[in-house]
Amino acid sequence: GNSVTQMEGPVTLSEEAFLTINCTYTATGYPSLFWYVQYPGEGLQLLLKATKADDKGSNKGFEATYRKETTSFHLEKGSVQVSDSAVYFCALTPTGNQFYFGTGTSLTVIP
Amino acid sequence: EPEVTQTPSHQVTQMGQEVILRCVPISNHLYFYWYRQILGQKVEFLVSFYNNEISEKSEIFDDQFSVERPDGSNFTLKIRSTKLEDSAMYFCASSDSGTANQPQHFGDGTRLSIL
Questions:
Q1: By the 8 A CB rule, do B101 and A32 touch?
Q2: How far is A16 from chain B (nearest CA, A)?
Q3: Is A49 helix (H, G, I), strand (E, B) or coil?
Q4: Mean pLDDT for chain A?
Q5: pLDDT per residue over B30-49, tens digit each?
Q6: Around Cβ A96, how many Cβ atoms within 10 Å?
Q7: What pLDDT is recorded for position A7?
Q8: Residue contact B100–A34, C-beta within 8 A
Q9: Which residues, listed in sequence order, are joined to residue B58 by a DSSP beta bridge?
Q10: N- to C-terminal Cα separation, chain A
Q11: Which of B64, B71, B32 is closest to B48 using CA atoms?
């Protein structure tokens, strides 16, 4: 079946620290992979995507590489800011119809 | 940037009552979706809709649920006889192509509280 496993949160970092949020997946076929971010009181916003193996998605300083051999799509940022505090969701879709989400990882960045 | 809009932002309903959640997808999008997130749990797929038909639905989407596109802009989710366990955040999403390499765009959600 299809599923996404994310690292447990919450994660608390100091400003300018390095961020990694782990995401691994199980899927039939060759899914597309996404990271969404949810700021307090808001909906899910697309952060980045990768649609095939070895693709790197990037946006706003965040990056994630589609690793087929390890079935992973870890989210990284070199230097986090207070404004990055949010909940981050890893997701996959095999067909574009149904998205499968991880449980979300809450990130708090302190000044 | 175009947005998916959902109303109301919060709905409180007595158990057994019907509720309709409303969504206005992005205007040139043709594929529409509903998801729900029970507090502390994963975001779960409910249903996808294209060309005035349901294209896929999950086990959660049973006979108490229905979806409709009543006009050219709205997409609604109706829950016929609400239960306590229907309390959740409901997200509407839309997509222009419905393919795997395109994201779904989400609204801010409707928080449904069943008393």
A1: yes
A2: 29
A3: strand
A4: 94
A5: 999 999 999 888 899 999 99
A6: 19
A7: 84
A8: no
A9: none
A10: 41
A11: B32
If you search the block for the tokens 């779960």, which residue do you land on?
B44
Q: Please answer yes or no on whether B106 and A51 come within 8 Å at the CB atom.
A: no
Partner-chain residue, chosen from B43, B105, B107, that has the shortest CB–CB distance to A101:
B43
What is d(CA A46, CA B3) in angstroms, rounded to the nearest whole number?
Answer: 12
In three-state secondary structure terms, B10 is strand
Q: Which two tokens stand for residue B28?
A: 């040139």
The Cα-based distances of A5 to A21, A32, A91, A93, A104 in angstroms read 11, 15, 9, 14, 9
* Long-range residue pairs from A52-60, CB within 8 A, at least 24 positions apart, any chain: A57/A33
Answer whether A98 sits within 8 Å of B56, measured CB to CB.
Answer: yes
pLDDT digits 0-9 by tens, A51-63: 999 999 999 999 9
Looking at residue A39, its amino acid is: Y
Residue that has been written with the tokens 């991880």 in this structure: A102
Cβ count within 10 A of residue B97 = 11
Chain B interface with A: residues with Cβ < 8 Å: 4, 6, 31, 33, 35, 41-45, 48, 55-56, 58, 91, 93, 95, 97-109
Single out the residue of A101, A76, A81 nearest to residue A91, CA to CA.
A101
Q: Which residues of B touch A98 (CB under 8 A)?
A: 45, 48, 56, 58
